[in-house]
Design goal:
The protein is an alpha+beta fold. It folds into two domains: about 40 residues, no CATH class; about 150 residues, Nucleoside Triphosphate Pyrophosphohydrolase. The chain is about 20% helix and about 40% strand. The protein is built from three helices and eleven strands. The strands form two sheets. Strands 4, 5, 6, 7, 8, 9, 10 and 11 form an eight-stranded mixed sheet that branches. A three-stranded antiparallel sheet has the order 1-2-3, with no helix packed on it. A hairpin with a 3-residue loop joins strand 1 and strand 2. Helix 2 packs antiparallel against helix 3. The longest helix is centred in the C-terminal third of the chain and has 22 residues. It starts with 11 loop residues before the first strand and ends with a helix.
Length: about 210
């Protein structure tokens, strides 16, 4: 079986779109019909989607020391987490449609972790939770040349209280194994870097 879908933007129809709520995000109800794998079209059905701007995230990495910069902050969406609603993450921020995700990643690294990104390598771009949200994420690893980014950062007018800390990559990967990291961008970025840091290190250190 071909793993790639035969369908495209021409194979569904939005019959109606209802705006249910608008604040920082929008909650929208879509009435849709779609082409089916066995042929024909589905009945019209509805889905509620949380609409939000796309985001860029970056894992700062020092190829000289094999250290990464992680951040920790309170997340209201993780209140149900039995350990703590303070989550270990990587730097991330949303962007407007006319902004470059790479530039946003560099800006957010300075704002949230106090570190200067000198080079970027794209990892993946993906939909974070497409069953209920349209959020799309561009994920990068970013080169830093110093590990002295520890401290408290963030914008006070946005109620950000972000702790940045540096840690050896091997220790960060151990946190993964122990289930201490529960956010998908951090999990994906650390697993990617664990597999690819040797050639990436050589690439960046020979520039």
């Amino acid at each position: 079986m071909n793993p790639l879908s035969p369908f495209s933007q021409n194979d569904y129809e939005v019959i109606n779109r209802e705006l249910l709520y608008e604040g920082v995000f929008r909650l929208v109800r879509y009435h849709i019909k779609q082409r089916l794998f066995h042929g024909g079209f589905s009945d019209v059905y509805s889905r509620e989607i949380l609409e939000r701007k796309s985001a860029a995230a970056v894992l700062p990495y020092n190829p000289h020391t094999d250290h990464v910069i992680l951040i920790e902050q309170f997340r209201a969406g993780a209140i149900a987490n039995p350990q703590s609603p303070w989550l270990v993450e990587i730097v991330a921020g949303i962007y407007d449609i006319n902004e470059d995700p790479a530039r946003v990643a560099i800006r957010e690294a300075k704002e949230e972790a106090g570190c200067v990104i000198s080079d970027l390598h794209p990892i993946y771009d993906f939909f974070v939770s497409p069953g209920g949200s349209n959020e799309h994420l561009h994920l990068f690893v970013g080169r830093i040349d110093v590990d002295s980014s520890e401290g408290i950062h963030g914008l006070s007018d946005e109620h950000e209280d972000i702790r940045a800390f540096n840690v050896p990559l091997k220790d960060a990967c151990q946190y993964l194994q122990e289930g201490k990291i529960k956010t998908s961008p951090a999990i994906i970025a650390l697993q990617w870097l664990q597999l690819n840091h040797e050639w990436l290190k050589q690439l960046w250190l020979t520039k």
